[in-house]
Design goal:
Length: 208
């Protein structure tokens, strides 16, 4: 963790942007650790927190967009490419599609907290027919939540980066569970409102 911190200290915003961009493309770069380092530097007054977050969100969206477009154009072949090194690519493809079908494009809000799911949601959004505007909006919000969570962790624990890094390994699961719960609550409220509207509309129709 300290090597990442000193690397970001030396190279600043450019290495933060590059690391997050590479991480989102699927390269083995520890994106969360770079965000933690940025948060710690912001706490020390050596980096602007808002600038760092804007750069991180931009890097995420720019890296995800090619995968989204590939999904729109190539369909399932992109998923096969992503899962090509797994033991059973077809099973992984089916699982990814099932998860996306369950939550819809809203899963982009939490995908970056879940390793593996993060890689497949942009192309899945493309293959599902999600509009480009909707994808960009949801992906940007998801990237914002992801960036704020890890940079915030570094900001709060700037004096103990090893502890922050240890928390980061578990934080993704915790954040994802919380966001899924929020989505479930909003989804349930939407269904309740829809049921009430349908029930009231049906009652009025019968009365007429």
């Amino acid at each position: 963790m300290h090597s990442v911190f000193y690397f970001v200290t030396k190279h600043g915003y450019s290495v933060l942007f590059g690391a997050i961009f590479a991480h989102q493309l699927g390269l083995p770069v520890p994106g969360p650790l770079f965000l933690i380092a940025a948060g710690a530097l912001a706490a020390a007054g050596k980096m602007g927190l808002v600038v760092a977050l804007v750069l991180a969100v931009t890097a995420c969206v720019l890296a995800d967009l090619p995968w989204f477009e590939a999904g729109r154009r190539k369909g399932d072949r992109v998923l096969h490419f992503i899962h090509r090194l797994t033991r059973d690519p077809d099973a992984h493809n089916r699982k990814a599609k099932k998860t996306f079908a369950r939550y819809g494009p809203s899963i982009l809000l939490i995908a970056k907290f879940v390793p593996g799911l993060d890689a497949v949601t942009p192309p899945l959004a493309g293959t599902s027919g999600t509009s480009r505007v909707q994808f960009l909006a949801l992906d940007a919000v998801g990237a914002g939540l992801y960036s704020c969570a890890y940079a915030g962790l570094g900001y709060l624990l700037s004096n103990d980066l090893d502890r922050a890094a240890a928390y980061a390994s578990r934080a993704g699961t915790v954040f994802a569970v919380l966001l899924v719960a929020v989505l479930a609550i909003f989804g349930a409220r939407h269904l309740v409102r829809r049921y009430r509207f349908t029930h009231e509309f049906g009652s009025c129709g019968r009365a007429v």
